[in-house]
Amino acid sequence: MPTFEEIRSCQSFNNNIEAAATTNQEHEVEVFDYAKRAQWLRAAVLGANDGLLSTASLMMGVGAVRKDSKTMILTGIAGLVAGACSMAIGEYVSVYSQYDIELSQMKRDKMTKNNVLADHDKESLPSPLQAAAASAVAFAIGAVIPLLGAAFIRDYMVRLTVVLGVVSLALIGFGALGSLLGGAPMLKSSLRVLVGGWLAMGITFGLTKLIGGSGL
Question: In 62, 105, 135, 214, which residue has its Cα 20 to 30 A from 22's Cα atom?
């Protein structure tokens, strides 16, 4: 028959195991939450980078054939609105598909265990509306940058130079932030994003200039 000390020792050992299990569960939740936040942040950075680059390329392309600031800014605004709506709709459809798949799997798991799916079980599922809103806002934030760069400058060459400079700095910043979130080398990532942005703006500017100058 076990002594009182042995029983007490066993109880203490069990308590330690339970405490360790609880700590591990909390640590897993923290890691999971951090991973989810990192994914959302990375998606937001990519969305802002898309808004920045596509809007700047549109403005540079139109600026190749039209020198007035009004046309250039209106083109940027149209690109902002169209791009934000496109991003939101695309993200909504994509995340809703993911939501349906995960919900169906959750229902099958509950049926296997003879449990009923409760409302709080759905809290861990992705929100299509939140994803759509986040994508639209991130795209709009990036698209505003070249618009602000061109908004108050009337001289044509100065306006193009300022837009190119502002967008270049923003591309470096987004590249650096994306590398931090993704664990990639900061310098290489920033330069890759910058060179890619220059190529996109240069190709758009050159082709638009070529087509506009041909009289089509």
Answer: 105
